[in-house]
What we know:
Number of domains: 1
CATH class: Alpha Beta
Strand order of the largest sheet: 2-3-1-4
Shape: globular
CATH architecture: 2-Layer Sandwich
Mean pLDDT: 96
Distance between the termini: 6 Å
Number of helices: 4
Low-confidence stretches: none
Radius of gyration: 12 Å
Strand content: 25-35%
CATH topology: Alpha-Beta Plaits
Helix content: 25-40%
Amino acid sequence: MANYVLIRHKVRDFPEWKRGYDAHLPKRLESGLSEKYLLHEANDPNEVTILFEALDINRARAFVESTDLKETMKKVGVVDRPEIHILNG
Length: 89
């Protein structure tokens, strides 16, 4: 059974956010997450949705609950409370 993490949030500036998101790749890989889809709303590029496949649901949960992720999101311009869902396929 596959595990997934779905994150939706609004950002201040997509290109600025994307640079910070890309720089955070080593932390995602360390947590066993691999990006499947990075999408943004057709009418609002600052509304971002990301789907990751998770190798280990416990490591994925630890990542999304981490202080590091919260601080990184704030630093790269996430402007609302992210919706984060851990899913089984």
